[in-house]
Amino acid sequence: MNHKGNTGFTTYLVAGVSVGALCAIALMSLYGDLSAPTPPSPEQFVESQPTAALPVPGAVEVAPPAQAAAPLPTETLSAAPVVAVTPSSDAASAVVPPAPPPVVADNGASSRDELLRMLEDWRKAWANRDVEAYFSFYAADYAGNTDSPAAWQASRRRVIDQAGLIDISFGEATIEMDGKERATLTFPMNYRSKRFEDEGVKQLQLVRDQGKWRITREQFTAN
Would you say domain 108-222 falls under CATH 3.10.450.50? Predict the structure, then answer.
């Protein structure tokens, strides 16, 4: 067998395959360069960008939802003292209508009314022979024509008890005031009982004692 001939053939075969492979690689590289897309021009690049949406006339633009504000921290307020507000000079200078004058009681008229009521109550106590009520209209030291208040009261009690039915009437009284605490009453009097009758003018002098008018002197003048 010829080994030299086989070796040369093999060498040629390997070389051919290598050359073929190199050619294939070169063709593939060339083909790849030819098939690669051509980069776009600047004008084509601008046109290929997405167009921004333009506002439509008359359309209402909706604002994006506002972000919820974080709640403010709460603060406990302490009660502040009330401060008196001083009126301004304008308010102070405003014309204020004068207050009506206070109503002053007529002490004279009031005293006269009290004296007339006292006179009528005294007459009723005497006519009803209510001795204790009758004595209450006199001053504590009243003694009349006797030596002491006790003696006068004993004398009057005896006369009133023995009088029986008593009829007393007074005419219109004249009142004379001596200040606010003293007064004199003068009036006609007609007295009748089963034992005695009299008619004349009675005069009482009174003084105000602890808010009540009391008799300090008594005088009768017969007609």
Answer: yes
Summarised one tens digit per residue, pLDDT across range 24-40 is: 665 665 555 444 455 55
Residue 152 three-state SS:
helix
- What is the average pLDDT value for the chain, to the nearest integer? 75
DSSP states along 77-95:
PPPPPPPPPPPPHHHHTS-
Between 81 and 175, name the one with better pLDDT. Answer: 175
Whole-angstrom Cα distance, residue 34 to residue 49? 27
DSSP state of 49: S
Domain chopping of the chain, boundaries:
108-222
Taking 3-state DSSP, the helix, strand and coil percentages for the chain, each rounded to the nearest 5, stand at 40, 20, 40
Q: What is the DSSP letter of 65?
A: P
Q: What angle do CA 179, 182, 184 make, to 5 degrees?
A: 115
Decide if 184 contacts 175 (C-beta within 8 A).
yes
Asked if 110 contacts 209 with a C-beta cutoff of 8 angstroms, the reply is no
Residue 94 or residue 110, greater confidence: 110
CA dist 106 to 25, 112, 116, 130, Å? Answer: 145, 10, 16, 33
CA distance linking residue 207 with residue 217, whole number of Å? 10
Q: Which two tokens stand for residue 129?
A: 């022979």
Q: What is the pTM of this model?
A: 0.53
Cα–Cα distance list, 67 to 74, 189, 200 (Å): 21, 107, 112
